[in-house]
Amino acid sequence: MVLDYLHRTFNNREIVLISYLLIFILWTLTQKKVRKSILGVVKALFAKQIFVSILCLLLYITVIVYGLSLLNLWNFSLIKDTIYWTFGVGFILMMNSNKALQEEYYFKKFIKKNIKLFVILEFILGLYVFGIVTEFILMPIVIFLSVLLGFTEANEEHKQVNNFLLKIFGLIGVLYLIYSVFEIYQNFKNFATYDNLRALTFPAIMTISFFPFAYIYVLYTHYESLFVRVGFFLKDNKSLCRFAKWRILLSVNFNLKKLKLITPGHLFGDCKTKEDIKHEIIFRLNETPSN
Questions:
Q1: So where are the chain's domains?
Q2: Which of 74, 168, 218, 271 sits at a 20 to 30 Å CA gap from 3?
Q3: Residues 6+ apart with CB under 8 A from 145
């Protein structure tokens, strides 16, 4: 019964990956230090600010999914894809929100990264997999080579080994692609379906739809951090502190570039009047951002 459900929901590669992950998790739970670390992570997740952020994330995704279902762009067959996207893209994008102020055109780059030809290739490669035994043999080999690749990339003296591993990965990718193309050729009718098209376009639609939430979340978190600093620098004058916060909001609004100009350095430390606050904000907004 359980195996039948797994085969209906997951392909062989996913079943193998889940199996190895469960083995790894069970092994880590036998390690005392790891168990303590996991408890620390769980406690951190239930901290008020993080918990509320995750709750808002899940609520927003639920609204998107409901809207897509009304447009016939989502059904229950995409639950697995939704979970993958939530933790593989949405959650990571939210947790890395600080990069939006550090990197120019961060959101634009992120969308481009998740919407390109390579994503189509990944979809095709994931659609057709080998038998369960073959996947069980190949998975640890691929994982081992991936770890080696990461190690050699971090160490310049292993550049030749890194180039060799890249060629091996390229060969493995070509073999997977040949197998997938052969399967498509053999069963083109099963490939060219609306369900497959919906599954292919789903991650791109989710990423684009998620953009407003990600942008507002970045603004909120950085405004919150900025206002804490304003409160620290103007702690002796609550009236001036309130004025500074409202003046920043009116001057910056929803513009991340302006927020980036306002954020750095010693903020309002020498300001004694409202005019001082206005002048410092104007001065900062007229500065040329450093690259």
A1: 2-216
A2: 74
A3: 165, 168, 169
- Among left, alpha and beta (phi > 0; psi -120 to 50; other), residue 193 is beta
Give CA–CA dist 133/287, Å, rounded.
Answer: 61
**Which amino acid does the sequence have at 219?**
L
Whole-number Å distance between alpha carbons of 36 and 27: 14
pLDDT at position 289 is 47
- 146-163 pLDDT, tens digit per residue, is 778 777 876 777 778 878
The secondary structure of residue 288, as a DSSP letter, is P
Give me the residue label for tokens 């193309």.
181
Pick from 46, 97, 73, 127: which is nearest to 213 by CA?
97
Alpha helices in the chain (DSSP H): 2-9, 12-29, 32-45, 48-70, 79-85, 91-95, 99-102, 106-114, 117-127, 132-154, 159-186, 188-191, 194-233, 238-252, 256-262, 274-285
